[in-house]
Amino acid sequence: NAGVTQTPKFRILKIGQSMTLQCTQDMNHNYMYWYRQDPGMGLKLIYYSVGAGITDKGEVPNGYNVSRSTTEDFPLRLELAAPSQTSVYFCASSYSTGIGGDYGYTFGSGTRLTVV
Amino acid sequence: RKEVEQDPGPFNVPEGATVAFNCTYSNSASQSFFWYRQDCRKEPKLLMSVYSSGNEDGRFTAQLNRASQYISLLIRDSKLSDSATYLCVVKNTGNQFYFGTGTSLTVIP
Fold it and tell me: What is the DSSP letter of A73?
């Protein structure tokens, strides 16, 4: 199993450009998440999905969009990149029963994004 | 008020020392609790879940105090390889996980 795979690992964007951060998992996890981590700060949830076709906003969704057309893939879209979106982005997945049972919460290796 | 608060440290301890980290959470209805470890420029990895009765995994002991809304992590006989940032994680009833900012530990030879 590859686990959670994120691409690209690094990217530099110019202000106003758009890009998609890819995330795929091969563990048949139902839940997937996108976080951003700024220096000295905790991980902030951007969006999450409890299953294919279902997405919900997290703490900091502004400036981002997601889709979940399959169980495996959960891409994160930045439409108009801004310097405030410079961060490290982590995708994660887990199997959750939704009633307190959470298993296998696994992170991808991250994408370091710089917006200049 | 933040969902999860941790002392950021840094904690610098000699090899063999015992070190403890605490973490407080604001939502009394939180359901699940975890400690994660994050090495520099790497992704967080699950260290251990925290159960109401307390649990131990080798040199690591985690405890939960629901009345005071805090969890703790105790590391005994510190090794150089324990140097990392330790993240406190709390899951609330809305299926969202909240991460603390992390506590930095450096174990010194």
Answer: B
